Amino acid sequence: MSEFILETQNLGISFGGLKAAQDVNIRIKRNQIYGLIGPNGAGKTTIFNMLTGVYKPTTGKIFLDGERIDGFAQDKINHMGIARTFQNIRLFNNMSVVRNVMVGLHNLPEYKCTVWESFFRLPGHFRAEKKMRERAKELLRIFGLEEERNNLACNLPYGKQRKLEIARALATNPKLLLLDEPAAGMNPHETEDLVKTIHFIRDNFDMTILLIEHDMKFVASLCDEITVLNFGTVLAEGDTKTALRDPEVIRAYIGG
Amino acid sequence: MKSLKRINYSHYINYVVIAVFTMVFSAISLAGGRLDSSLLFLFEKMAISIILAVSLSVVVGFLGELSLGHAGFMCVGAYMGGKLSVVLEPVLGNAVPNLLISLVAGGIVAAICGFIIGMPALRLRGDYLAIVTLAFGEIVRSIFLNSSDETFGGTLGLDTPRFDKKYLFIFAFLMVLLTLLIVQNFIRSKHGRAVTAIRDNEIAARACGINVTKYKLLAFIISAFFAGIAGVLYSFSNYTVQSASFDYNYSIEILVMVVLGGMGNINGAIVSATLITFLNTKLATVLTGDLAVLQNLIYALILIVIVIYNNAPALKSFRDTHNISLFIKKLVRSKHDPASIKDDAAKWDVVPTKIEMNEILSIDMKPQNLGSDKPSKGGDK
Questions:
Q1: ipTM score
Q2: A-B interface: how many C-beta pairs under 8 angstroms?
Q3: CA angle A43, A89, A176 (to 5 degrees)
Q4: CATH code assigned to B8-286
Q5: Pairing between strand A33-37 and A208-212?
Q6: pTM of the predicted model over 0.90
Q7: CB–CB of A188 and B348 under 8 A?
């Protein structure tokens, strides 16, 4: 148990000559809600992609709870304890809502069922399916999606799709939850709801959350600490209120 | 939970239909009843087509990858199983144990090929994978074509033991049942769900911790295993294996069965495999002499008509009212309340979101219009 749930050291990646991120040091304490902000093209999603193994960082190290995870495959990193949502919602559109969550539960040891057991429908298959379905329904109930559990995921309204994506990520039982612009495209009513949801997840799932967001009001009301990025480098970091007042940050956002 | 139970009944319909069919005809055959040999041959052909279509639909319909080399797996199975049965004939004779051992062995060798061809499938997708599988089918065929006469018969083909036609079709249909059992159980388990998740959104599946490599390979292996079994049956049904029969056209024909049946629809694949085989065999027997050239023309015309009927917008209202599945639903579910998933889905447009009066002025009323059908080009990935 290290002090920081996630720690990056001099994290950087370059695509050819373009340095998309450079010397990024992020330290997230347990149970924090941490924000990653910056103007368009600052490299926020690139960092998310490095943390989840979509890209291999060219320099630097990533530690999750004291263990080095950089260079691992995406599914391995998910097993280690990082789950994410996407900027453009990526649900399994042709599956029902409950099945979406059950895919998230796939790798947990308590729902283990070998391929042979499922080929021949041995008792292990039914046991695992029943337990998974119950757990998925429990998660959906928390997010107020239980009524819609047999609908196709693509038929849900936007706000509920976002919630379902978060529920699916939580189903993988992560230590750290990454949310990529969770409030994008939401109306104020839905955003308010989302703030409550995120607080609820932090408190009830004992979760650490790292999020990317453009809505400053949203960030200010939610995050304990933030890192501000610009052109792939860290512009400011620390306590949310102080970092947002930093003159460099204001210049990066409104120019001048 | 009611809706779940309702679906479960229909899961078993195809087993029941095929099992009853098999039992009736095997009873007639084994009781010494006279079944026309061309009818038995048609049954064998149908069973082989069903196995092929169902196994291909694992890769095409559920994994969502285009494979054009299914006849290649079949070819491997046919030669390996056929050769083994020839080798075993002096020991076991042309009896049931020989048949079963050859079937399993042919399937296993084909499954190994499936594993090998599944490897590039991890890096390639779409057209490129189609090209690789197509090449695989052709390579396998040429290898057997150029083999020496002692090993696999080369250009002459490999003669296989003559199993009694009286029971060969029974084993063919037992293999159909085995295929359905394994494939459907797999698809409806957590592992099958992982495979469909990869089809729906591979990036999200990876992010959910699904081991994409493992499941793509698994889908290819299952698909190839049953194609191999179909190949062995084919070799026994024809008494001989000719490498020329497993050409590109045969792969396409299997693909047509899957596509006509509807991607990811196993019952559809069964029906279309049966119909297409029936159609092909009937056309081949009815049109003889000079008319034989019309075979492919009529076959193509029928396929075109089916595709147009299934897709033409002008026929939509006709399709909605004259529909087999609707008819079956009416028969089976007349006692259930009419609320189906379709109605629930439609309700989303009607149910208003909870919005208080003072908020209405500032809120976009239709959040669902922002749905993710066509995601905006963001920085994501």
A1: 0.91
A2: 159
A3: 60
A4: 1.10.3470
A5: parallel
A6: no
A7: no
